[in-house]
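User: I want to check something. If I give you two sequences, will you return the structure for each one separately, not as a complex?

Assistant: Yes, each is folded on its own. Here is the first sequence with its structure:
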Amino acid sequence: MTIDPTDCDDRLLQAVLFDMDGTLVDTEPYWIAAEYALVESYGGTWTDEDARSLIGNALPTSAVYIRDRGGVPLPPDEIVERLLDEVIAAARRAMPWRPGAVALLTQLAERGVPCALVTMSYARLADTLTALLPAGTFATVVTGDQVADGKPHPEAYLTAAERIGVDPAYCVAIEDSNTGIASAEAAGCVVVAVPHHVPIPPGAGRTLVQSLVDLDPDGLEEIVRSRRLSVRAAR
């Protein structure tokens, strides 16, 4: 799909691609609690620094770290499944939506802007979230168990854009972690960062906001427009 960034009559915002954990929902405390419980059950030691270092990672990568750093004598895939069991149970008790998340999804649906969920969590956790939203909220859902290479590799974001049928350069990716931002930027997306559990440094072509409450479809469209004009000016 090719769009002239100077044509103000064309909608430049082709899709919005949302990270899940820490961005749409504040499930990171659930993950951290599950990590502590698992490591301590095997007599290991875990720290908040260890937990923060895993935010945004592919789950198999985190599982290897937990096995090696936390002394958990289990195969990585079993570590992943045990963590998922705990996080899903907690999310079913109370889904911790981030401020503005549901409102922004609703506004984008009303405007007809396709959305995707792009998460390194596995499908069974993503299903727990999507079940609480109106059918069709997400045009596609890309999860960590559907890709060969997890974030920071761009595969997940490229897959989401391909499934929707849009150019990543006209998609906004909304992320809360440096790992996720690296993935989205490598895919060529326009990145909006919403720092939460880890600090996000400024970067070229990157927009930082304090909360999803600060975003709406018109603002996202303008972010894409500004980015495309900057890219054109730099040529």
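And separately, the second sequence with its own structure:
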Amino acid sequence: MTKTTFPLWRLLALVALCLLSLAGYAARDDEDDDEMDEVTPEELQMEDIPVDERIFLKKWNEVPYDTRYFTYTDAQLKEKWDYLMRGLLFPYPSAEYLETQFKKYPFLAEGIKDWDGDYQELEKRYLENWRKFFAGDFQQCRQDSLDQGPVGLIPGLFCQLMYAIYLSDRQSEKYMMLQDIANRAKEYFDDIEEFGIEDDPDPDVQAVAVMVRLGYAYAIARIAEESPVPIVVARRYIGKIKGNAEDITEMMPNHPLAHAFRAGVDAGIMRRVGKFTGRMTYGARTTTVEDSFDKALELAPDIPIVSYEYANALIYMNRKRDLNEAMRYLEKATRMKPQFSMDALDTMYAFKRLQEVKLYALNYRSFRKFEKARRKFSKATDRNLTSVLTPALNMDMLENPDKYVLPKE
């Protein structure tokens, strides 16, 4: 675990700054009195969340569908690859591609266990990883990917990402899994600079660099979106997320999920600190959100995560003003026909999120009140609210969190 120790006066100054920002936000956006989320000095001092490795040893929850629906043969994977990767744009890991890139960038061969240099055999191993990702066999994919080098690790990290967000029971477990993804991805930041990201980019491996940075930034963003503002500021989440979001759209301007993520970052900043503070302090702009989502929807109109993230962004920016439009986008996401695990889980979560939005619309005047009640419930119960395996929030849960506390393991 990495820690950064702050003097007491700096911690107090940090909290004071957050209070001032939120006070201005409340006056502008919701016009009601609200308290800051409670955080401890220990939480503020913690740079990274400590990861308990036992979460990877126990049996993970299964996906809520039959994995045979999305289990493809090698021939089917090759035929469907471009469509299945229409959002992530990761190249097909053919033996020819792997051999070319490994010779240009020898570090890509590091860490591959029991490999004798046969690229045809390596193609089959990597395809097996992706087959498990597409089907939803997340735990086995993650385990198999750990000794298959940087390229082979990517599907494993995204399996872990999907599991953490949509299938883990506990918020604490979700955070640890996301932190582990960020830790592993960050280990390759120096190596992927060899791809000439800024000065002379290599288009053949840009997608690899984008997947590494997207995995890192998305994991951190999912922690930040449900963390109290003082923690977001203390851990410098916004700078880490925003910087990577801008990098990946510059690296691959035709990457739909990169544009959706870039838009979601600015919307998320407005969600937490308001439009004015978001624009003045962090450069978050509604025009960026709108333009980036327009681009993402143009590039990939049938990806459910783009539609439901756009719905979230509309609420984060404009509260109830665009609520009907937001719900239409959520409903649109629920109607999309999935072809693999990620789309299936995104579609399921869009339905659950729609129920949350209706709960907010019917019972809360203040968006901040609803958000705080949601965070308070999750902290008190340790329940992962983005899990598709559990019912959507309701008022009894928000008003009586003690009834829903998960038992200690």
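Because they were folded independently, the notes below concern the second chain alone. Residues 8-30 form the longest helix (23 residues). Confidence is low (pLDDT under 50) at residues 1-6, 11-35.
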